[in-house]
Amino acid sequence: MFERFTDRARTVVRHARDEARAEGRGPVGTEHLLLGILADGDALAVRVLRDVGVTGDDLRDRVRRHTVRGGDGLAEADAAALREIGIDLAAIVARIEESFGPDALREADPAPRRRWGRLRRQPGGPFSARAKKVLELSLREALRLRHRHIGTEHILLGLLREGNGLAALVLTEAGVDLSDVRRRVETALRAAA
After folding, report:
1. Using CA atoms, how far apart are residues 140 and 131, in angstroms rounded to an integer?
2. Which of 23, 41, 102, 138 lies at a 20 to 30 A Cα distance from 117?
């Protein structure tokens, strides 16, 4: 499938992998693909997002709020949701650390370990199941549009079509109508043809 990717689309995927590595998290998620798209400021996908009022900085901040882990191991959005329903996370963490010692909840080093001289790979490969689905959907979108290549716009269409990942969530939180963006991408593609 990657042989159909344009150079720009390949760069998006490489940038997404770099984003996931920089976070020290597991596999590449939909949010990393979105950040990878946003890294190419001249791409058609980015122009469409800009036209609907989305900025890369805003989306990056939204992704960070969902993914940055605090001392308690939860993302800030998760901790806020628990506060909303009356759960005092600080008190729970204090009790656990009292029973099991300081840093009992601290995550282990997420970096892959060497075993028998080889680098162990993550079980699902470098992409989460949703990110794999997005890449598959980008191929389907290109085929549906009768394009022989997969560009950044097809990856964005795949993200929009998947619709359940963190990328779709942060776009929706930013006030983006996913169906409207989809129509705009398709209109821009027809105009460019």
Report:
1. 14
2. 23
